[in-house]
Structures are given as C-alpha cells and as structure tokens.
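<instruction>
Derive structure tokens from the sequence
<entry> Chain with its tokenised backbone below:
===
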Amino acid sequence: MPEHTPTDAETAATAALLFEAGALRNQTRTGWPYDGVPISATETVAEHSHRTTVIGVALAAMEGADPARTALLCALHDLHETRIGDQTPVTRRYVTTADPRKVTADQVAGTHPAVGSAVALAVEEFEAGETPEARCARDADKLDCLYRALEYRIIGYRTDGKIERCRAALKTGSARSLADAAAEMDPAQWQRTLLDAPAAL
C-alpha cells in the first residue's frame, strides 16, 4: 500500500506534469545553427534526453556508479526546458534564465508528494554534479551532443567545433574513451555490421 493516498488535485497535477513532459517532443534543440546545422534538421529535447539516458546507463556501468539512478537524472535533466526553452552557451552570455531547480519546483507543485520529491531531488542532484551518478549524467549530456555532432558531420555539416567543445567538457575517463572511440567510427557501423553478417535463422 502507498504511504500517501493522493487527493484528486494531486493526481490531476501529476497527470498535468506528464502532459508537460510530452511537450519536449516539440521543443527543438537550438544550439546547432551555431555549428552550421539548420534548425529544421535538429533534434528535439526529447530525442536528446532519450539517448542521453542510454549513454548514462552505459557510463554508470563503466564507472561503477548506479545505472538506474543515473538514468533517472538523465531522463529528467532537461524537463525544465518546457518552460524556459533550450538555452545555448551564446544566449547564456546575455540572458539570465531561471535556475532549473526553481523551474522544477514550480513544475511539481501540487503533484503527489512522492512524485514531486523524486523529480526535485533528481534535478538537484544533476545540477549539483557532486555524486558519481550526477557526474555520469552530466557527461552523458555532453557525450550525446558529441555523438550527434559526429552524425551531422558524416552528412556534411561542419560540426568539428562542437565535437571539440564537448570532448573538452567530459570529466570521466569512460566518457572520454567513448568519445575517442566514436570519433574513429562510422555512426552507421552498427547497421552495416548487421547487414554484412549472415542472416539469423
């Protein structure tokens, strides 16, 4: 049995938060045009968050951190962008935006207390960046950008600067090794390997 029986208002607020999370499907990542990628070709925040989560699981496993906790931090790390958008390093030089923790507090206000606590604590941990899981999650965020830049480069966009900036921002040895391996690899290598292999019975 749950420790807290939610009120109708708490259930409604929690459902609203879940609808809000879906809005990340429509939130475009805005930094890519600075690297020559047209906004029409860029991924959404939801797409970025998905692979960031998968990368986070891999990094945590490699680093001896908790993959499940890291996945949670990755999945929620950009939830606040439903309200303030995707801020780039360029815009942050001139525009001061709300702290993600404050935005998250507003987002979870009125939700089931356990839901609000779980989300707020995960965002706080990610932003503080002090735990092994947070370090893996923050590296996963950068590593997804690096991988996406490599994918854009292979189709002709000039993203070398983004690749270098993301590589320089990585903190864990595992993230740096995955970045270096990716730089020597065709992003479609996984598919070609399957296509060249004998068909499974």
Remarks:
- The chain has a mean pLDDT of 95.
- The chain is about 65% helix and 0% strand.
- Residues 142 and 169 are 7 Å apart (CA to CA).
- The radius of gyration is 19 Å.
